[in-house]
Amino acid sequence: MTKERYWVVGGDYEDLRFDALKDGAGQMLGPFADREAARDVWRRLSREHSARATARFSIASEQIVLPAP
After folding, report:
1. How many CB atoms lie within 10 A of CB 48?
2. CATH of the domain at 8
3. What is the full DSSP assignment across the chain?
4. CB-facing half-sphere around the CA of 60: CA atoms within 13 A
5. Is residue 33 domain-resident?
6. Most distant CA atoms of the chain, gap in Å
């Protein structure tokens, strides 16, 4: 049996190529049990950092294999 969980990741990058985060500027929030909860956090962070062109956040998901009952 598998379960999916979600993370909000990102932060303030060094430049607009978004190749590297500034030192200490990375964030990883979660895990969230559903995409909607992660989306709410993503929206809040995106609004809070909207004045910074070098800030970017994304939603990542992972599959977890649960042990058989």
Report:
1. 11
2. 3.30.70
3. -EEEEEEEEEEEESSTT--SEEEEEEEEEEEESSHHHHHHHHHHHHHHTTT-TTEEEEEEEEEEEPPP-
4. 12
5. yes
6. 49
Phi and psi dihedrals of 63, rounded to 5? -100, 130
Query: Residue 21: which region, alpha, beta or left (left: phi > 0; alpha: psi -120 to 50)?
Result: beta
The answer to whether the CB of 46 falls within 8 A of the CB of 40 is no
How many angstroms separate the first and last alpha carbons of the chain? 9
> Over the stretch 33-66, which tens digit does the pLDDT of each residue have?
999 999 999 999 999 999 999 999 999 999 999 8
> What is the domain count for the chain?
1
**pTM of this structure:** 0.85
